[in-house]
Amino acid sequence: MKSLVKIAWRSLWRNRRRTILTAAAVVLALVLALFMRSMQFGSYDQMIQAGVNQVGYLQVHDTGYWENQSIDRAFFYNKNIGEAIKKIPEIQMAIPKLETFSLASYGKQTKGVLISGINPVLQNKKTHLGKKIVKGSYLSNKQNEVLVGDNLARYLHISIGDSLVLLGQGYRGITSYGIYTVKGIFHLPSTEINSQVVYMNLTAAQYFVYPYQKGLLTGISLYLKDPLKLQEVKQQLSVSLGKHYEIISWKKVLTDILQSIKVDNISGQVMLLILYIIAAFGIFSTTLMMTMEKRKQYAIMISIGMQRSRLVWVSILETIIITITGILAGLIIVTPILFYLHANPIPLTGEMSKVYEQFNIEPILPFAVKAHIFISQTLIIFVLSTLSTLYPIIYLSRFNILKAFRH
Amino acid sequence: MSIIEIKNVFKTYNETSVPVHALNGINLKIGKGEFTAIVGPSGSGKTTLLNIIGGLDLPSKGDVFIEDVNLKNLSSRQLIDFRLHNIGFVFQAYNLIPVLTALENTEFIMELQQVPKKEREQKAIRLLETVGIGDKKDHKPGQLSGGQQQRVAVARALASQPKYIIADEPTANLDSKATEELLDLMRNMNKQYHTTFIFATHDQRVMDRARRIVTIDDGKIISDEQTEK
């Protein structure tokens, strides 16, 4: 085996330029693939993070609420729930909320809306809702204030300081009603939210829906210190809270984001496939040239008594040496760059930056440096390169030494 | 006693539209320790005969026995193994492995035979010294002259302790001095170790040293002479 490695190694360096060019093709393919994937996964993480900031990593509801989002499936916050959440140190923050549907009326205009009862301080901390106010100001501690979306305000012809009448069905069939002052008008990236949502203080919403008992909630959004511990936390909470509560992860809530990531990922994979094909042809053409160039050397070796199978090994070793050299060089080049970009994402400017900010996403181009990206891309490039050894294997199995001598 | 026996061998190449009959009923016996030259004009079938004796090619018809082994009955793998242990080759174009040094080229065949490292290295050095290029053992073929490369090829051929050595036009690319030296070397090997040499050649100087000259033309043996040398 040692001599096979020696022959393979020296054969490669006999044509230094070609070997370097082939290794460079591997380097380029790996660097581009890793760069692309790192950027893609970085932006996915960013999208998911922006989504999770809105909804939390986990949500606690009354069992069945997610499938049938009715106010009658709301639950009362109690000490046990609070203790169960506090008991888990991995939970960084818990934001309670109450959501219900109602009619909103101003003057002659009426529209169905979603009332979202929030804790203004906590909500702002996670979603920066305060920054989305385009007119007026953000919620204070007063109980009769509401925020309305800009589309809804336009529809109702309502403005700051005007009184909005809300009328709807409360908890357990009671009629809910109230008059609220418009404190601010917000604009979020979602037209649906801008046209339908009214934000108010959580306690005001609770009073609106069910004035007879405090603490009614439709859900609690939970934020984790380490998102990797999601399953663990979910499991612990399930045990503590029992069967009356359902705990769902962000993956169930943010299905739209996940779907768009899936679609984008497919287009990314198509691009990668094209890159792989180009790289594979580069490597294959070199393997082909090396095989053709060494026909006579192969013929000598077989004629003096070397088995074809051992020659195949020489060929495989050559490709593996080039590939590993290319992969190592590629990793040495790209790893520090990706780690640097991970720590210092590329800031976006101009229109792009505005679009990102509209979606509550930081205007940066982030790069992910997850092990699976490095492992998968390295393995794919390695397998592609190794596949090119099929040619010499087939060639050597049919090889005619006398013909090779004549060439 | 003959170590090579060729019985009614025919070889036809069908690679072109008109079949080429390279050998037409060759019968030949070569004994141990012979120093035989196969001569004839270009296209007479010398190289084809040598390839068949060397197990590099198989006859279309007829049999080639090396001692009692009929080469026709060996599989491709067995044939390679048979060559490794029984036949040495010296080619016209030297055909050394270009990426290995003179020592490594000589050692290589012994490595294939799984001779232990130390033993094969000592033997390779001894053989290179015997062929007169012990001081060039670390040179690669590209750093050696034609004559020196052919000496390495002889050392390599001898390294496997073959039953016989086949040399196809071994002097064709050598100058007069190198040719004389190579022929002296092979003759000495033949005398000293009773190694059987079979040449295909056009070279009169090789014929002058041969103890037996087999002349072929149109794929047939037209004369087979023993010389007194």
Verbal overview:
The complex is a heterodimer of chains A (407) and B (229). Chain A folds into two domains: 201 residues, no CATH class; 179 residues, no CATH class. Chain A is elongated and about 100 Å long. Helices cover 57% and strands 20% of the residues of chain A. The two termini of chain A are 29 Å apart. In chain B, 36% of the residues lie in helices and 28% in strands. In chain B, helix 3 packs across helix 4, helix 3 packs parallel to helix 5 and helix 5 runs parallel beside helix 6. The radius of gyration of chain B is 17 Å and the shape is globular.
Overall shape of chain B: it is globular
In angstroms, what is the radius of gyration of chain B? 17 Å
In this structure, how is the largest beta sheet of chain B organized? 6 strands, mixed
Q: Tell me roughly what share of residues is in helical segments of chain B.
A: 25-40%
List the helices and strands and how they pair.
The complex is a heterodimer of chains A (407) and B (229).
Chain A: H1 2-14, H2 16-55, E1 58-62, E2 75-76, H3 79-86, E3 91-106, E4 109-118, H4 120-127, E5 133-136, E6 145-149, H5 150-156, E7 163-169, E8 175-186, H6 191-196, E9 197-201, H7 202-209, E10 216-217, E11 219-224, H8 230-241, E12 245-249, H9 250-253, H10 255-293, H11 295-304, H12 308-343, E13 346-347, H13 350-358, E14 364-365, H14 371-387, H15 390-397, H16 401-406
Parallel strand pairs in A: 4-9, 6-8
Antiparallel strand pairs in A: 1-11, 1-12, 2-10, 3-4, 3-7, 3-11, 5-8, 6-9, 7-8, 13-14
Chain B: E1 2-13, E2 20-31, E3 35-39, H1 46-53, E4 61-66, E5 69-70, H2 76-86, E6 87-90, H3 102-112, H4 117-130, H5 146-159, E7 164-168, H6 176-193, E8 196-201, H7 204-209, E9 212-217, E10 220-226
Parallel strand pairs in B: 3-8, 3-9, 6-7, 7-8
Antiparallel strand pairs in B: 1-2, 1-4, 4-5, 9-10
